[in-house]
Amino acid sequence: MSIPLLILEESLADANLLVKMLEGADGQSWQITHVNCLEAGMDYLSCTQFDVALLTLPLEDAQELTALVRLRRLVPALPIVVLTETDNKQLALQALAQGAQDYLVKGQLTPELLSRALRYAIERGKILKQLQAEVQERQRSEQTLRLIVEGTASVTGKDFFHSLVRSLAEALEARYAFITECVEDCPGYLRAIAFWQGKEFGEGFEYDVHGTPCEQVINSRGCQCYPNRLQSLFPEEADLVMMEAVSYSGIALLDTAGELMGHLAVLDDKPMETEPRNTALLEIFAARAAAEMERLRAEEAMRISQEKFSTAFRSSPSGISISTLNNGRHIEVNDSYLRMLGYNRSELIGKSALELGIWVKAEDRATMSQLLQTQRAVSNLEIEFRKKSGQTFLGLVSAEVVDLGDEPCLLAITTDITVLKRADQALERLAEIGELAAMIVHEVRNPLTTILMGLKAFQRLNLTERFQDYLHLALEEGERLQRLLNQILLYAKPQLLETSELELNCMINEMLTALREMPSAQGKQLQFQSSLSPAIVMADKDKLKQVVINLISNAFEATNPGETVTLTLERNAPQRLCMQVHNAGKPIPADVLPKLTKPFFTTKANGNGLGLAIVKRIVEAHQGELFIESAEDIGTQVKVYLPLK
């Protein structure tokens, strides 16, 4: 069915555009009449009935809201939607106050928006007509509407909901009225936040809506009414018997996004009228309740958000400041910012960084301002600052433009990176020393090789016993030095892994014979136990072999003849294994344990202190961990944790 629509628009082109937009919107048919001035529109309205009018402001023969006021006087019940060129909030409020159903802006108009606004205006107009008719028919309607306003206009929060349910019960002459909210994380459960039970307020309660009349309201997300025989319709609901309930009417509470928040309901101990007036009143109360509930939720979300920001702001280890963008005047700062610069709060608030001389180089702030004008945010800028004491430091600054009220401000986070810079420089120095050490090792190893070759050549000479001893000692020391140089290079260079799937049980079983034949294993036993099969890791096989050999060799050296070294594999966590080497030798002193993996620390007379240091680097390169425990009652246990594939 076509909807009669009157368009009051001076521009024929704009009117034609509006007609085309309506023709292309959601399949609704419109019977459109267009006039280009107020007087012609009023002539039409005097003799023709329209469902809705679309009024463009201003019209040439009427200024501002004059056209709206005259139309409203002529046809008070006609829904009118106002259309303007500009988004003027003041004009919009005035138009709505004068009775317009909606306010639209041409530049923001879409076919769907226009059609929906007109249809909603018609629907709202119908509701208003019904309410006006009811007010005219019954004197009590005036008192009812007064109850709605007087009962809820001056209160908010919990008091609002108590006042609302009491006013609702009086307006609908019902014994009970209550409002609920959905229980978070418990679908199908409601919590009563206000309950009027005839003469007083009842206690709040939670309940499962299944099998209750409220279930139908929640599922339909609309309005449901059971005017009589309520207990026979819901025989399993014992509370209805206790309340002597005969009738029920309820409506869902939805937020502006259409999400369910709860519901509003009344019950009575007598049959309930089903006239449209009661439904309309229930909808009005529901709209007010939903708006207040959504407002309270927004306030709570804002409060939580502000608390989170405030906590993060106050407790942040980095210095945080909020200053005006134009002149850099400090508005707010946290304690870390004060400590970093050495000022107290009163010395900073209201003053700019330039005024206090905080910026060592004024051009740094100019550079940052230019970046902010184009990007509105900068990150990780290294800027030199000056403390109150005059001492300077290097800060790492990230900043973003934020609008506080009508003023653009700068939210900046500053971290003192002086120590980090020094550490970086120290690391660079260590890297240079490492490179120098590696170069020296290479330079020493080459002539050492030549020396060893010469010494070995001397072995073929017929030397006296005395010189044979000298030669033997020189060769031993030369080879020891060569081994030390090789170990230094092995420790210094990065642990580059060539990983593949490796089954540790197989690898260890392949090594057992060689391990048991090591010189340090003479007279001692090696036992391998595994409770994990398969034990698959992603690893460099050669390097893990080196780990096993080193740990077993150390254990043998600490074990007395006749004793046993145990190597075990077991699961330590769902995705981690533990490879443990145990010996029962003399325990390692507690003050020595932390030093064992340090380079060049050793407890052996002929050790170089690099074996365990290299083992630790290999294990960590495999994303693993190395731990050493030693005590009188447990012996010494070296544990290697590796991630399972």
UniProtKB/TrEMBL annotation:
Family matches, as PROSITE patterns: HIS_KIN, PAS, RESPONSE_REGULATORY
EC number: 2.7.13.3
Secretion signal span: none
Keyword Transferase tagged: yes
A Pfam match: PAS_9
Catalytic activity as recorded in UniProt: ATP + protein L-histidine = ADP + protein N-phospho-L-histidine
Domain called PAS: residue spans: 305-381
Domain Histidine kinase: 439-645
Record bears the keyword Phosphoprotein: yes
GO molecular function: phosphorelay sensor kinase activity
Keywords: Kinase, Phosphoprotein, Transferase, Two-component regulatory system
UniProt enzyme class: transferase
Response regulatory domain sequence ranges: 4-121
Protein name, UniProt field: histidine kinase
Organism field: Leptolyngbya sp. NK1-12
